[in-house]
Amino acid sequence: MAKELKELTKRSENYSQWYNDLVLKADLAEQSAVRGCMVIKPYGYAIWEKMQRQLDDMFKETGHVNAYFPLLIPKSFLSREAEHVEGFAKECAVVTHHRLKNSPDGKGVIVDPEARLEEELIIRPTSETIIWNTYKNWINSYRDLPILCNQWANVMRWEMRTRLFLRTAEFLWQEGHTAHATKEEAEEEALRMLNVYGEFAEKYMAVPVVKGIKSANERFAGALETYTIEALMQDGKALQSGTSHFLGQNFAKAFDVQFLNKENKQEYVWATSWGVSTRLMGALIMTHSDDNGLVLPPTLAPFQVVIVPIYRNDEQLSQINEKIAGIVAGLKALGISVKYDNADNKRPGFKFAEYELKGVPVRLVMGGRDLENNTIEVMRRDTLEKETVSCDGIEKYVQQLLADIQQNIYQKALDFRESHTVSVDTYDEFKEKIEEGGFILAHWDGTPETEEKIKEETKATIRCIPLEGDRTPGRCMVTGKPSEGRVVFARAY
Amino acid sequence: MAKELKELTKRSENYSQWYNDLVLKADLAEQSAVRGCMVIKPYGYAIWEKMQRQLDDMFKETGHVNAYFPLLIPKSFLSREAEHVEGFAKECAVVTHHRLKNSPDGKGVIVDPEARLEEELIIRPTSETIIWNTYKNWINSYRDLPILCNQWANVMRWEMRTRLFLRTAEFLWQEGHTAHATKEEAEEEALRMLNVYGEFAEKYMAVPVVKGIKSANERFAGALETYTIEALMQDGKALQSGTSHFLGQNFAKAFDVQFLNKENKQEYVWATSWGVSTRLMGALIMTHSDDNGLVLPPTLAPFQVVIVPIYRNDEQLSQINEKIAGIVAGLKALGISVKYDNADNKRPGFKFAEYELKGVPVRLVMGGRDLENNTIEVMRRDTLEKETVSCDGIEKYVQQLLADIQQNIYQKALDFRESHTVSVDTYDEFKEKIEEGGFILAHWDGTPETEEKIKEETKATIRCIPLEGDRTPGRCMVTGKPSEGRVVFARAY
């Protein structure tokens, strides 16, 4: 779509505006006519598809299968698990009728009052309830276990303040729901999927994450334990990027799902659930991008290489076309996705700006002199560095460059996080440091009261109790009471 | 999941019951707690995933990209296109509230009356309205065209009588929505996608289809022309399997989507939409399956080959395991998906019945004598024929057999259709033949009145005006008025 490529707001001027500008100008997503629901545009969706494909492969490698459960959930199901309903009731879209009819005034349609549902249905905010109601019929004995299902679906949580990708009323996600014969197996599963998420974030998104356990306050509604991966954005705020829950027997009890164990006794089934959503798009955008636009990791870029010709006349263009055809074929043979843009209705400078904005990892440019010299100009999007290299072996050169970019943007994000992670020992110091953003490692006495006080006074929350790193005990920075080890604080999205 | 493998109802006894039995017993899908909404179980979903992957590749090869549009549509949008609202208003799920609250009596939750939406939202029955409202902002000039978007999504049509896969309130589908600068280009696109559907049905599903145009009565609500692929089921009923619509400028006018054409004049945009759904699962099941269960085309089977060992003792099993490992590796190297089922908690006979029921195209069995003789028993699911062949070259043998099965089930379905397609010239003969099922080619005067009369008197509908075959004019079998050519009648799902 032709459009003016206006300047992005700079990150240093207004980070939040920079993000909104970028999402719109890079054609990733936009608001729809329906409050809080976004349209994911083709370029944004292509990135999401790449994420889906990779995650789906990883789920299948770890033994999971996909299935599909209903969009709508009977209202009464939600009430079965006390904490669950408490967590979700306030943000439910409710279906009350199943028919419209012509308005008596002849203007449009109205809800047909005679088509009222006996029981209201809610659009799933998450599917534990409908799925455990289904699993009840699938499980009789330990031989039916484990069940390792995932579904790719849309869900709806009626948020009051929404932001594209980060917090929307409707979002796309996957939700895994597993059923196990033992507590140990379910706990293992919850941790396994946390590690899958961690690997996906670091290896494919190039986003370093801290893996840890949520405090009780931040736990999923209905979980006994919530594991999380937490990423740090360039503005120093944390973004929760994926969670995996050990649900104990809560949902099995709520929906009476028992099985005959090996000792021939009835027992409640153990459960996990885990999910990542289109929120990951927000993490991806904010971790790597700069004032020129998106920076995408080569593994998730819709196309990894763009080639632009610069030519004086049709004859020269056709020579360049011929030369480039060989390079395109060579790149494709190496599994590299490439777009050759020789459209004549846009100037090269316009194309350069557009592909920078869209974060294409590598740009190749061939002009008349390159043609003579058998060279090509290579630009890498992450550092914007340019060099002119020989066309001989260009394919292998680009392949290595893509790997370098993937590694470099990960390392850059990791360096950023490390330089924005500090340990503090006093609450005064904490209050000072939290204003600078970043992760703060501090001792906490483990009580919800202290956590709440810190949140009220500083807007910082406990992102997680980290699973790795220094676990030396100490004293809570607020109360002086014993602490089992430092936890990660930050202000968060 | 362990369960008793009870006999299926025979097709000849009760075809409809056979279908329901099969969907349930082969673990494809089941009813959920929500009226008319199904749970698609992992085995059924694995088939749907294979369909999706193939269709998605075909859409991308024809230049389409994926995107995602909101689940909810403002009620008023529906009224913008007069025929469209007429077609869908009666089956809309309506969201009226966005919050639940605790019931005053302490029992569960109720809809919070204070959280009533200003304008009701409907769950998309199809997305023309929300998408054309979005396209309005994407289109200014002919340079912005064409737009070739597809989305994979769930939709909801509140059907009163539902059947698994064939007619459900919620179903999964893809919907393509394209925008063009000229009428010709939009018409071409609608036909292109009809042909993609036809190729997919015949080449991958092994389901022969008649391609044609819908009569005005059967057109999509808001379309100028609806193209369809029509398949014939084993009970002689037709199943509409996919439709592609030329929408003219109807939605562009309803949502005021104009563009500046090459002559610098404002013009309304031309549109198409096209979709196939989980209904295709019904077509797949009913076309090929038999009284022993599913018969799946190798191209869409979740696994193409199952191998079962028969052994006297652990030592023999370990010898067979070793031998089979080589065969499994060889099959996988040819891109053939294979499952080796040496689980010791089920008898071979039980496994045989289960894999027959699930339609696995090829079964290999190795027993002690086979091990001695370097042979293996091969059974093909489509004909249930068994033979014992040498293990040398078994991989290539199976590869060829899979291709044969794909071809054979297509040919069988085509033979069935051809032997159940008749031309009739009088209405009396029509009334007689329609009782036998199948496609009837007959002359029709082209009026909705005659079509309606035939439908009322015989329950037969015009499936399509075929695009191929004999188009000799004649006289309507009912009115004697001129007919442009025979059309396809049948009773239909």
Give structural attributes.
homodimer, alpha+beta, eleven-stranded mixed beta sheet, globular, five-stranded mixed beta sheet, 493 residues
Describe the structure.
Two copies of one chain form a homodimer. Chain A is built from 14 helices and 27 strands. Chain A has 493 residues and is an alpha+beta fold. The first copy, chain A, is globular. In chain A, the strands form seven sheets. In chain A, strands 3-9-10-16-13-12-11-24-27-23-22 form an eleven-stranded mixed β-sheet, with helices on both faces. Chains A and B meet through strand 2, helix 2, strand 3, strand 4 and helix 3 of A and strand 2, helix 2, strand 3, strand 4 and helix 3 of B. Strand 5 of chain A pairs antiparallel with strand 5 (94-97) of chain B.
